Amino acid sequence: MSTSRLIAIAATVSFTALSMAQTTSNPRQAWIHKDQRIQLLPQGAVTDNGDMLSRLMIQEAFARFGIAYDEGRSDVLASLFTEDAVLEMADGKGLPFQRTVGREAVLKQFASAWTQQADQRRHLISNVVIEKLSASDAKALAYGVVTVATDGLFLGASVIYSADLRRGADGFWRFAQLFIGMDTYVGKKPKT
């Protein structure tokens, strides 16, 4: 067996072992829906104005959020939130453990989290589903996986996002409300 194959196997074992070792409890199944934080509509139930460009821009807002957070780019994060934005975070146990109101407060919260996290995170955001789309407002859901690199690579969180977005006068979609629901969180949560 080649050295590179052995390294790949060792990395997979380390990733799995660290992920399993640091998970403290299982979340309730379908907790985010049961807590009425999302409403996933059936296929075909969502009607919109057919604006495919808006759909792509909303997907990009989610992707840009993940990359900007990982790279510590508060300037980019600022461009993604409305002035009156609301950010909530919760875990599989139920009620939000954090609620932040206003773009400046949201940016301060992210900056505080960066000082408490001495690792490299990578947000992998997928399954973006547009639940509502009008000329000025949208509602969207997405899944995310957050990897953490610190003395090895492991899974930091599995996440569901629920967002209300508004289109600005410049045509770009911004988060007016962003709910981040973590099924579980590895390690110590940043203080809020």
Overview of this structure, please?
The chain is an alpha+beta fold. The chain has one domain (3-185): Nuclear Transport Factor 2, Chain: A. It is 32% helix and 36% strand. It contains five helices and six strands; from the N terminus they run H-H-H-H-E-E-H-E-E-E-E. It has helices spanning 3-21, 31-34, 52-70, 74-78, 103-116, and strands spanning 81-91, 98-101, 120-133, 137-149, 153-167, 173-185. Strand 5 (153-167) and strand 6 form a beta hairpin. The termini are far apart.
Which helices and strands appear, and what pairs or packs with what?
Layout: H1 3-21, H2 31-34, H3 52-70, H4 74-78, E1 81-91, E2 98-101, H5 103-116, E3 120-133, E4 137-149, E5 153-167, E6 173-185
Parallel strand pairs: 1-6
Antiparallel strand pairs: 1-2, 3-4, 4-5, 5-6
